[in-house]
Specification:
445 residues, alpha/beta, 15 helices, globular, disordered N terminus
């Protein structure tokens, strides 16, 4: 579960009554990124529909003018959570068809929005009230008693806000805000104690409150799964319930999740999303061969995620045990070119790491011990693949750790490196065994 603050979301509504009667689904978003003196690219993504941040669904790609202004018309059939971003900007919005807004903002992550106008701009006041609540940064300076009192006060304020807006805004908007309160409460009560502990202090909510926040996340799923973060954490809540079962298996976890989704009383779009999210998750857990038939049957009638899940299935099947290990290029610690195929014939223990990954470095002691135990087996090759983007930092680390013996290579780019992409690595450390079988190396795990 990633630590995140409650994101600033905007619901916007504009357009003429005649437009609505005619079924016009155009949604306009325009604005200006302040302090820009040249053009830059902006990407508009259907964030609420995405299965993972690494699998973007682009609605539009545009270039700002030199003064930072931009304009985009989107066609939305239903309310959607979207993101506008580039390397310097990250904005999140909740849009309904025919909504429109003009706003100004500085660069940064969820920067302050200014001078917003258009139908729906009155809703920005609602989100201005929501945004500061349950802020980890604000809470971390409080003592335990202050945390609990502030938390209860903000829960009450949130509920008062929801009661106030019920007669002022659309049912979809109210449901979305209500679900965001449920998510914010869940995320804060489950994650903040870990964040607080990083400062050497201790705080925890009573078990009954934490348990209730998880139950509420499930109960509110019908309206919440349109949010990317809500859906992601809902998946992990469902999986955590399986952890309480005494006799567990990887495939049993898959079956349990899919059966639970059937009970969530989701609408068709929500059901399709949570099923697709489950398939994506279990593919990433190495279960492609076991769930292949179920996934292919699902994709016959469900087209929204057909393209992305077909590509994911194909990629993970190529990485399934028994298939040839994908070759990749890198450089070794002497500056020479390297390819995995250079080690053909060896049994390869591959350790994927980076100097910025503390758990990777902590695990090296086990790699050293394993190498010592296998020292009599000449055919075993220990391959350490760093995905560092900083070559000098990698060289310096190896210079300080000469006892980390084996073949050292660098595939630069962090998690976007060639090697990480070929092996679909989205987190490290990662350990892979490659067995030598006659003419082709085969993945073992």
């Amino acid at each position: 579960m990633r630590i995140r603050g409650f994101l600033f979301l905007i619901c916007i509504s504009v357009g003429s009554c005649d437009d609505r009667a005619a079924g016009n689904t155009n949604t306009i978003i325009s604005g200006r990124i302040l302090e820009r003196t040249d053009s830059s690219s902006l990407f508009i993504r259907a964030y609420g529909q995405e299965l993972d941040y690494s699998l973007p669904i682009y609605l539009d790609t545009l270039e700002t003018k030199n003064d930072g202004t931009f304009f985009s018309t989107l066609k939305l059939e239903r309310a959607s959570e979207i993101v506008i971003e580039n390397d310097n900007v990250f904005l999140m919005f909740y849009l309904e068809s025919q909504d429109s807004i003009y706003f100004e903002a500085t660069e940064g992550y969820l920067p302050e929005l200014r001078n917003y106008t258009g139908r729906g701009s009155e809703k920005l006041e609602v989100f201005n009230e929501i945004n500061p609540k349950f802020s980890f940064q604000d809470y971390k300076v409080l003592d335990s008693l202050e945390i609990m009192n502030t938390y209860l006060d903000q829960l009450r304020e949130y509920q008062i806000l929801i009661d106030r807006i019920k007669d002022q805004f659309s049912e979809d908007f109210v449901n979305y805000v209500t679900a965001q309160m449920t998510y914010a409460n869940f995320h804060f009560s489950n994650v903040f104690p870990w964040f607080y502990a990083d400062g050497g202090r201790s705080f925890s909510f009573v078990d009954s409150l934490v348990s209730k926040s998880r139950d509420d996340l499930v109960k509110e799923a019908r309206h919440g799964v349109q949010s990317h973060d809500y859906a992601e954490d809902l998946l992990y809540v469902v999986l955590s319930r399986y952890d309480t079962i005494s006799s567990k298996t990887d495939f049993g976890e898959y079956e349990y999740y899919m059966e639970t989704v059937e009970t969530l009383e989701l609408d068709s779009a929500g059901y399709e999303k949570m099923k697709a999210l489950g398939f994506w998750y279990f593919l990433s857990q190495g279960l492609a061969p076991q769930i292949k038939n179920d996934l292919e049957a699902y994709l016959v009638h469900n087209i929204s995620y057909r393209e992305v899940l077909t590509a994911e299935l194909d990629a993970w099947m190529k990485l399934a045990p028994g298939n040839p290990a994908p070759n990749f290029s890198a450089i070794d610690n002497h500056g020479n070119p390297f390819q995995l195929s250079d080690l053909k014939g060896a049994v390869i223990y591959m350790d994927v790491w980076a100097t910025w990954c503390a758990p990777c470095i902590e695990e090296f002691e086990y790699s050293k011990a394993l190498r010592k135990r296998l020292s009599d087996y000449a055919e075993v090759e220990f391959l350490y693949v760093s995905i560092d983007d900083n070559k000098e930092r990698w060289h310096a680390f190896l210079g300080r750790n000469l006892d980390l013996q084996g073949t050292h290579v660098l595939s630069q780019g962090d998690l976007d490196s060639q090697m990480a992409k070929k092996y679909k690595i989205n987190g490290i450390p990662r350990y892979i065994i490659i067995l030598s079988l006659t003419e082709a190396e085969k993945l073992c795990s």
